[in-house]
Amino acid sequence: MSDEVVRMRRDYTRGGLSEGDLAPGPVEQFGRWLDDAFSAGLDEPYAMTLATATPDGTPSARVVLLRGYDRRGFVFYTNYQGRKGLELEENPKAALVFYWGELERQVRVEGGVERVSGDESDAYFASRPRGSRIGAWASEQSRDLKRREALEAKVAEVEERFPDEVSRPPFWGGYRLVPRRVEFWQGRESRLHDRLVYEADRGKSGWGISRLQP
User: Which of 39, 84, 123, 173 would you label with 189, given CA atoms 20 to 30 Å apart?
Assistant: First the structure.
């Protein structure tokens, strides 16, 4: 099987990306590409890899779902006491990667991370299905679980505790990654890809754009 992986090849031929194609800001450009991904019928184009790190630089990554974006940044929700939440509290910097293989595109986002407001977290939590709200209370995210039955018992306990409305747990809510650097990657033939990067101009309100070698 390892030999098969070595031999696998795919060329990228869908198109290119030029400076003239770009929106003035990275969030607007991201919105264009996300719309393209939805229009192409991609499965969960809002799924993204979130990379965090401990203060000493030990990294970890996982796939989470984008739950909002605007010029302030990219929002996702989680348990504050899980691994990613604890790492973000200790080292509030992170990176995101969106990969849309069918479109031969990738977006990388880097920046600082802050909690969203309680009102924002409450509003999103209220929009979730009841089962997901129950699960947020029942799961001690990232902790050891000796038996699946223990989790199911906790779910039953929370169901009984909240027969009607399920309030947001105080240990659960949203984070916003405030972008400082956003790279748009478009695959090209012979691995001569287009890589265009927005970087926040320090002390200014605009964005600088540069092209990177592939």
Answer: 39
